[in-house]
Specification:
The chain is an alpha/beta fold. It is built from 14 helices and 12 strands. About 30% of the residues are buried.
Length: about 400
């Protein structure tokens, strides 16, 4: 048998598509309401998605009767499929031509209601109970184990159903290779450019506790100490409110022989940028505030805009998937170009961050996976995510060589 998934704005259209493509061999497994289209999650429309398969068994000849007889036959088939033992209704007299259309619509309405009931009973059932292939059941379990979102998994499954042959569905390793490649392509990597004729101003924003200050120190060390030859690097910080924050970044600067300056206003920020116009890199650390503290976010945003620099958003991989999506949304006013994923070493499941990045269509620039400066930072690569996925067949772990990824 061959599986299919069809979508349309409503039940009538999706049924018409199935009849046109697959004819009487189509068998329906499930039906659900979905949201499609839109831009960046906005203006999405309601639609209907139907999953089913095409049977290759010989078709039995079907005798067509009057509309009343046909209605009774269809309803009886639905009752049998639903496990009901109610006796079939007796055929109704054939309607006149003037009442045929309304009666047919009534039949369709009843069928839709029954299908809604059947579909709702699928919720909470296992893949095996829904009649899914064993390979697909195992794949859903692996995706859930890695904390991928349901919508991400649905998109992956839809892709596999359209691309994989029946032979591949019987081989979990082959399916796993397809899955790995699909996940790899769903991860967008920011096209980072290191050398410029004017100072490369890098601003890091984000909520409290994601490791912005440590990340700025790692970046400064990556380019000011590890690179060969080293870049001319400066550090500016506007995080003068948090206890010990200024002392922490100043200590890092002292160890790396990189100048550090505190800034408290947009005007002072512009002056500092002018003073260091000969530098290769100027890394700017910002104050960490809750994304729901709109007043403070507005103040930070004003200073960030005064830099005219490249803005990156720091997000911790340990954050709950739904919270990551909300953080990404609420920091949109900063017009950040990419995301720095921190604390990769503190989570066992990276599916949540992969799902959130794909859902919000965001690119990744850097990853951090520890507290050591400058070792525990690297340029973002799909392999860095893939090697952290658990129990996915066909996914071969990749060694973390040349972790810093600095141009030599």
């Amino acid at each position: 048998m061959d599986y299919f998934v069809e979508q349309a704005p409503n039940d009538q259209e999706v049924q018409a598509i199935i009849r046109r493509k697959y004819g009487d061999r189509a068998r329906i497994l499930s039906r659900k309401e979905i949201r499609t289209g839109g831009v960046l999650g906005l203006f999405r429309r309601s639609a209907v998605e139907v999953t089913g398969y095409c049977s290759h068994a010989p078709l039995k000849p079907v005798s067509r009767g009057t509309p009343g007889e046909e209605r009774a036959r269809i309803l009886e088939q639905v009752r049998v499929r639903d496990g009901q033992n109610a006796p079939a209704r007796t055929a109704e007299p054939a309607p006149t031509n003037g009442s045929a259309a309304p009666q047919l619509e009534s039949v369709l309405s009843e069928i839709r209601a029954l299908r809604e009931t059947i579909s709702s009973r699928d919720v909470g059932t296992t893949g095996s109970e829904r009649g899914e292939p064993e390979t697909l059941v195992r794949l859903r379990e692996v995706m859930e184990e890695n904390d991928f979102s349901p919508s991400y998994t649905r998109s992956l499954v839809d892709y596999l159903r359209g691309e994989c042959s029946l032979e591949e569905w019987s081989d979990f390793d082959r399916i796993g290779s397809r899955v790995t490649e699909w996940i790899r392509e769903s991860i967008s990597i920011y096209p980072w450019v290191e050398r410029r004729r004017e100072p490369h101003v890098f601003v890091l924003v984000g909520p409290t506790g994601v490791g912005k200050t440590t990340t700025i120190a790692k970046l400064a060390a990556m380019y000011g100490a590890v690179a060969d030859p080293p870049f001319d690097v400066r550090i500016l910080t506007i995080d003068t409110y948090r206890i010990g924050a200024l002392q922490q970044i100043q200590k890092y600067g002292e160890i790396m022989s990189i100048p550090v300056h505190a800034v408290e206003s947009a005007e002072e920020m512009r002056k500092q940028l002018d003073l260091h116009s000969e530098a290769d890199f100027i890394f700017i650390d910002t104050i960490g505030k809750s994304p729901s503290d709109y007043g403070k976010l507005a103040e930070v945003n004003q200073m960030v805009r005064s830099t005219g620099g490249e803005v990156h958003l720091a997000v911790s991989a340990t954050t709950k998937r739904s919270d990551i999506v909300e953080i990404i949304r609420q920091f949109e006013p900063f017009n950040y170009q990419a995301i720095v994923v921190t604390k990769m070493d503190e989570t066992a499941s990276v599916g949540g961050i992969i799902s959130a990045l794909q859902e919000k269509q965001k690119s990744v620039s850097f990853l951090t996976d520890g507290q050591s400066v400058p070792q525990d930072i690297e340029r973002a690569r799909p392999e860095s995510f893939l090697r952290r996925l658990n129990n996915l067949p066909g996914n071969r772990p990749v060694s973390a060589d040349n972790k810093t990824g600095v141009l030599k």
